[in-house]
## 1
Amino acid sequence: MIQPNLKEIKNAHLRIASYINKTPVLTSSNINEIAGCNLFFKCENLQKVGAFKYRGASNAILKLSKAELEKGVATHSSGNHAAALSLAAKKQNAKAYIVMPNNAPKSKIEAVKSYGGIITFCEPTLVARESTLKAIVEETGAIFIHPFDNPNIIEGQGTACLELLNEHKNLEIIIAPVGGGGLLSGTSIVAKGIDKNIKVIAAEPKNADDAYKSFYQNKFIESINPNTIADGLLTSLSELTFSIIKKNVDEIITVSEEAIIFAMKLVWQRMKIIIEPSSAVALAVVLSNKEKFKNKSVGIIFSGGNVDFDKLPF
Amino acid sequence: MIQPNLKEIKNAHLRIASYINKTPVLTSSNINEIAGCNLFFKCENLQKVGAFKYRGASNAILKLSKAELEKGVATHSSGNHAAALSLAAKKQNAKAYIVMPNNAPKSKIEAVKSYGGIITFCEPTLVARESTLKAIVEETGAIFIHPFDNPNIIEGQGTACLELLNEHKNLEIIIAPVGGGGLLSGTSIVAKGIDKNIKVIAAEPKNADDAYKSFYQNKFIESINPNTIADGLLTSLSELTFSIIKKNVDEIITVSEEAIIFAMKLVWQRMKIIIEPSSAVALAVVLSNKEKFKNKSVGIIFSGGNVDFDKLPF
């Protein structure tokens, strides 16, 4: 498998540019004051389908041949990747077969439906997801697009950080949340490719700290029954993302559920934008470690904004 | 009293430009599809203090002499103007005395406090507000800055539409919500001043339709016990704003509470930004009158984003 690199991510950006939103980088003098540093928020919550996942899905779809597109694409996903793949497929008049766990958030199920994805529900285990997906792929011939264990996906996700660093050239630190590691992989390749002095920090919930353990014990450790409000960060790394993260990431910092909820509410209140808990994890890292970030220029990737309003933690 | 005009609004823009946020104009292909027209949302919910009011307050404060600033400023306000005046005063090291009704939303009280405003609570009637304010002004010598019955405030509020039309020159219709009429006055002067063919429509809750009645009966009719979720639109027009509106506004359209809540939720869900009910009234006008706006390019001013999360209507 080819390792994604900065050049391929720049190509991916040209490929997807006319399909995606060039999301704004927002700042908040109020939150800067609270944090004691200068924060630059890359707002992928304002991306199409409300998440960075649309970048990777678009890149993966646009790299398929006509013959492949005719058979459609398939994936299993807890939500945002499923919505992203559905919409990216629809834009190319292709079918998207989506395997979703039956406990996926309502808002994410509705989103997939509204984008024309063909949903098959399964039990919320990796085994059930994979066997259900396998049956669909065998029946339809659809191309499996993994949510993160796929170089084309990682290249697409890296384009958010590319836009951020094009717009703000003097960032000293970039923080991205880590679940399966697709966003973190793409982000870290771009940051280190542009300037190896930029520090790349991964943000992870304490209650789903498989990447943290894997990184510091230097062996792949699976996520087992994680229980965090950050529902986008439940999955384990893959071999591909783990290898990229080991090479490019400087540090992984974990945060409590309380810190995640506090950061999420702060953004809603002060910035008037809607972020999902997974997005808040990166800001929670800063607010839980103020000395470390004092007076630094820090880029933060807000990964998405899909929440169920009737299940707000505040 | 001098009537505000386009030239003075352009001067106000130069005066306040370095103090305010140049808020983004956002679009949503999803909401355009639902509405059947092209909507351009001027996001004053992303303005400092979360509302367009910061524009008017900044302009009014920056026009004061040093001697006047030393005595401070005072106002009565249900919320956003109070927060705006407090912060604008603080930036010039001036005091802001704020009279607030004791039923004002918690988030707005907290905002005024956090910006250093000196609050005096009173009963939620116009009489109580005015007598409390009078006593404070007599005691301190502070300059009274009315929330909308003040040319400097109206000039400041007009700068939002000025930025919108500078960025999108081909808008056919501009919609702004109407409460006291400060935003609508400034907006209508700018729109008609730039191109008299731009249609200016005011959006008002059916449950607080004093401007509608005043406009179509051609006489000033007071708002009596209005009961709407759009808590920024409870006040009556003033003589000044009514005279400007009669001259520059083409139409006032009222909408139901259900339509306001639907529009508010739609924006939260699809655009991932937080708007307060008063902001949603303008979009509700479009969604309740789709034929009228079909295929038009419509500018909508989102007036603010201050909400109590524990009192959401959805």
## 2
Amino acid sequence: MPGPARIVRTAAAMQRLAKEWQAKKLGVGFVPTMGYLHAGHVSLMQRARKAVGAKGLVVVSIYVNPTQFAPTEDLSKYPRDFARDKKMCADAGVDVIFAPTDKEMYPEGFSTYVIEEKLSRSMEGASRPTHFRGVTTVVAKLFNMVLPTVAIFGAKDFQQAAIVKQMVRDLNFPLRIIVAPIWREADGLAMSSRNKYLSPAQRSQAGVLWLALEQAKTAVAKRAVPAAQLTKMTSWLISTQSETRLDYVEFFDPETLAPEKLVRRGTQMALAVFFGKTRLIDNAKL
Amino acid sequence: MPGPARIVRTAAAMQRLAKEWQAKKLGVGFVPTMGYLHAGHVSLMQRARKAVGAKGLVVVSIYVNPTQFAPTEDLSKYPRDFARDKKMCADAGVDVIFAPTDKEMYPEGFSTYVIEEKLSRSMEGASRPTHFRGVTTVVAKLFNMVLPTVAIFGAKDFQQAAIVKQMVRDLNFPLRIIVAPIWREADGLAMSSRNKYLSPAQRSQAGVLWLALEQAKTAVAKRAVPAAQLTKMTSWLISTQSETRLDYVEFFDPETLAPEKLVRRGTQMALAVFFGKTRLIDNAKL
């Protein structure tokens, strides 16, 4: 049984630790999270361990980042359970939990941001205009604090992973990004800390996101289909569930995120659906 | 006599080299420049050597960064002389010249920028609106490429140094910034690659920037003076020279860059003056 993960609270202590490992030419594998961990996160930790080997350092950050929430969003009620997170990290063989305070992350007078101006315009960026600026800023900060050789992001946040890869390339962060597959519940619902918000009625309907992806996959399996037609099919399927409101559905190139008018196998599909105030996202390569 | 500096052209090769030094727990001292080096740059190289010691790695980057020039500015005619720069670096005991290509720095599809939103509004930021976004972006890139333990900036670009320090703090770059003193010609003119643009008549008048700083220093040596009064004195002094046009003069707190209405000893003064199309800057703590 692995021991409990070491808890680190400051950037300076985290940098010292990471530099020790790098000086020994050992890998540092990093999984950034907002806590309230689930099996999807555990799969990312396992991927990090695989990437850095038994002697490498696996670091999980737990930080609910205020700059990626709009004032109207769920920052204050975002679920937290540090005791449970600690146990899950220990069970997964994580070496370090990096859990900085807000004051450590955004001290008085903070005024520097990282922005991405192309991939961040559509989808989540259109629905949540300040979201990705918060993401790129906190990820850049965490990279400089944790100094990873490899960082693991989940494919559920597909656009986020694409933007982080773009940032790493553009700003030359000396690390590798791995995007790990979505982890799903039995009915196909992608695992997310926000699933906790769903009422039992909403939860019973939430598998419809996955059904929408499967429906589109089937539709394009043998022939290309206009995006407009798939959008209609998706809207209709989502609307069969009483608790839903479709926010967006998009069909796009998985590298450039450019929308595709004619959808084929290999096109990426993403959608966001409201269940009351809870907004869930999912995506798949068709 | 030190040997010639090694020339490195790619981010990957530069990162490998820096990581070797860091693994040996040796310092990497970094001086970012746009080339066309002068004695001011040499003083920064010497400061870098002092910071990292004889076994440390001193890296000078030579890159005329397009993103910090506005379309109307002097990018295409910015002076360049790589052969001379190489010799000056060799004479100064520099280990590595990092001279990346535009394609290496800004590949097709580049879309990520670092922005600073508080210190960058006034002075150079007001006169050159996109300038500092280009500076913070290229400096962040260079930091991730060169992986320095210490980076040296010249005090002539006072606001730039303040913004870089803010960026390092906010984004947690694992390095130390040293701001080294301005190097001056015999008549007080701050050394700058742009001094080359001056006609003989303009050059003979360019000492007036330094005179303006000295005049203000004298004025506040014994009592506080309203900024408005010092601004008038400065404007008048600059206007005594036929080739000049004052762009701005500011009196401000050296840490926050907040303007000060009553100027005392310790207040920072900065000014920018056009000589024809050539724009020179200078500053001093009064």
## 3
Amino acid sequence: MKDMLLFAFDMNCVAHQSQGLWRHPRDRASNYTDMSYWTGIAKTLERGFFDGIFLADVSGLYDVFEGSPRAAIASATQIPTNDPFTLVPLMAGVTSHLTFGVTGNLSLESPYLFARRVSSLDHLTAGRFGWNIVTGYLDSAHKGMGEDGKQGHDVRYDIADEYMEIVYRLWEESWEDDAVVRDSDSGIFAEPSKVHEIVHEGEYFSMKGIHLCEPSPQRTPLLFQAGTSKKGRAFAGKHAECVFIVGNNPQAQSGVVEQLRQQASLNGRDPKDLKVIGGLSVIVGNSDLEAKEKFEDYRQYGSHQGALALISGWSGMDLSLEDDKKRIGHDNGDAIRGVFHHAGVSSIQDWVDRTTVGGATETIVGSPVTVVDQMNDWLDISGLDGFNLAYTVMPECVEDFVDLVVPELQNRGLMKTTYKEGTFRNKLYGKGNYLNDSHPASKYRR
Amino acid sequence: MKDMLLFAFDMNCVAHQSQGLWRHPRDRASNYTDMSYWTGIAKTLERGFFDGIFLADVSGLYDVFEGSPRAAIASATQIPTNDPFTLVPLMAGVTSHLTFGVTGNLSLESPYLFARRVSSLDHLTAGRFGWNIVTGYLDSAHKGMGEDGKQGHDVRYDIADEYMEIVYRLWEESWEDDAVVRDSDSGIFAEPSKVHEIVHEGEYFSMKGIHLCEPSPQRTPLLFQAGTSKKGRAFAGKHAECVFIVGNNPQAQSGVVEQLRQQASLNGRDPKDLKVIGGLSVIVGNSDLEAKEKFEDYRQYGSHQGALALISGWSGMDLSLEDDKKRIGHDNGDAIRGVFHHAGVSSIQDWVDRTTVGGATETIVGSPVTVVDQMNDWLDISGLDGFNLAYTVMPECVEDFVDLVVPELQNRGLMKTTYKEGTFRNKLYGKGNYLNDSHPASKYRR
């Protein structure tokens, strides 16, 4: 039996997935601007042997519902939202093993400066940094940038492919492994002949320059991806090392997991090199009854307006114009719409109900034994490598999970009792710090 | 007698100002990628009641000398260089009062996302954040971004003025003070009618959107500026709250200080609202002799190649083509060239000698009494409000200053013995967190 991977799914905002639960008397998510809120969460996660924290992000706002951001602003639905990258050095400073998977939207920033920020964080965290590659789904983000709106879905992935080529070259090709010698005697810090200018003239980008950073522990950070549309799966099969999917049905997920691993094979990669984690929420109590009561208590604070704002933004459909009982189909459109098809959501009302506790993820409610039974079944059926746990009431839900569920997982041999040493990538695969040779980026390394 | 302002002048790299001193046996600057290097410096500065740390930055490399980056790469002359913003949450996490003045080049990043990053850091640091506004002087930074080269000097300041208008509106205008109510009972986190979309259609930028962040403690971060060309002084007089100048002659500096304060007056501001700090290096020993010996010891490790690379980049002149004895004039060109005119540098050789210990700043060498005498005289003659101390051997020079010079400064009543409470701006002026009403940005606040 292998250790499951375990991440906390979080965001630098008040209401990430579970809309309205910031109103719960014990919730502290509205303290998201305070350092102590985040250092506390980081320490709890490391105490509970979580592999890492996965930070979502949007650079726009949810203004599809009613054609206005009104509901999102009132409900704090992922707005206000602060920069997730700023949390990493803070949480890294109070932990030794916790890793960081941070969402960065490549359609908003130049590869040259983005590559620098990422390398800087991989250095500071001693290789505990991962990047969740997204192309963005909110028009409003692009309006903030002075553009008319986002690119079409398929074009976004073409742009992403070219962007990846540039950042790979900056991370892998620009500085050779033995370029930096730090030789006090000769006065040579780095050998100029081993530092190479990257010249790129492509369809969407051009650049010329050396990477501003010396090689960081992992060079290319651990690569996450979350899209599960057809183009998204192809992109993940080529680039991602860890894919995050959501869904409320482990049988349906097993098909997605299978398709993702096939995509890796099609790209000449070992399918086992692609880790897949699924979204989940857990509400645990000392007994099933206590957990059920906690769930019912949380649920009272759910915000339907917030959920409608969130779902409208995800789907691109203004749900204020729809009958709540309307059944939802799958039109092969945006990734998020595809995700919800797989999740088996049946109606808007069903979708809203789920979203107020747990957001896009299924919620397991029960005693530690019940929770672990269900998590274990889920893994067996789906073929997932682990979970990304969305928060409900924060930080209570993380503390409950660490205090009650983690010991049960450990007792059953489903979860590690010590951390592996080294970088994010080495902890995950045990094969060193760099991307392995079958990954397309490795060809740029000299 | 007023307390002098005291900042540490640093950069997320190996060789910032004093070229070659990373080779000194006690120097640790080549550990700049380690968290503990920076948390150590931060704690030492706070122990010594420094007001803050001022982080320089370049987003390109020094490739003017010999028309190549060879000398800069070999000597680690501000290359490699990591993102300075990533250091702030780390150092804020181990301090309570230390403030952060961080260089951000506004010609490289969209105002929409830059404003968000800054607000996020102002939140996390509880208002201890400042932004050093620069327009950049290295062509190579722009080539990295896929542009042909930097804009002309005067155009850069026009672009900067428009950029400032946008970020001011995001910080000051988008969210009213009472927009965020955090009302659990009503379920209203923020009042949508009090959050305003910013629509900008200008010559260089367009954007449409609300600021992604709720108002941070200072809203607009404390504003630094460092340009002292004619356009730069006009820009500083309009925008800056704290201006950083360099020079080796307090008499000459007094003229610059006067001109800067006049520019503030011309913009309808109280000239006293413009703080001016001067660059300085200090090498202190228990006696004058010990300090002199330390200086001579440091000097052996200076790198002339590194200094030539640095100065060529600053001045835009390839010094490999010049006679080292050639006298340097002032052509009213780039800001950096103007700075060196004021610093009274007489020849390339003179410039290189100065740069190996202290960089662009004058170096004071002596016992605590000698150092404080000279610092005090300097302040009296120049009219400066304080100093920005460039490093030599790191972190030894900071520890020496804190252990030897700070007590002497305090004994003579030149320096505070406790920190003032509150935000960066409140610590500096004692008049609250926001920009005062005579600053041009204040007109955007509702």
